[in-house]
Amino acid sequence: MVKFVLKEETTEKVVYEYFTENALDSGFVMYDKNEEKFLIIALAKNDYHQRYVQKVILKIRDFVTANSFQNEGIVAWY
User: CB of 53 within 8 A of CB of 18?
Assistant: First the structure.
C-alpha cells in the first residue's frame, strides 16, 4: 500500500509526497504539465525497486486524464 499527498500544484507542475506501507519516510514525484513528463525527485528509503512510486505515477496519470489532481489518495494491491 502507498499513500500520497499533494504538496504543490502550479500552472507548470504538480508535486506529490508518497509514503510506503505506513512508513514515516517519504519520497517525492513531480509531474511537469508543460513537458507532460514525470520526474522522481526522491525515492522513499524502502522503495527499492521503485514499485511504490510507479503506483503513484499511474494514479497521477489518471488525474492528468481527468484534469483533476486530488489532494491525497491511497493505492493498495495484493
Answer: yes
Looking at every residue in the chain, the average pLDDT score rounds to 96
Quick one: which of 20, 24, 27, 57 has its CA closest to 44? 27
Q: Sheet harboring 37-42: ordered strands across?
A: 37-42, 26-32, 13-20, 2-9, 72-75
What are 12-22's pLDDT values in tens digits?
A: 999 999 999 97
- For 42, half-sphere exposure in the C-beta direction (CA atoms, 13 angstrom radius) is 11
The pTM assigned to this predicted structure is 0.94
Cell of 37: 513528463
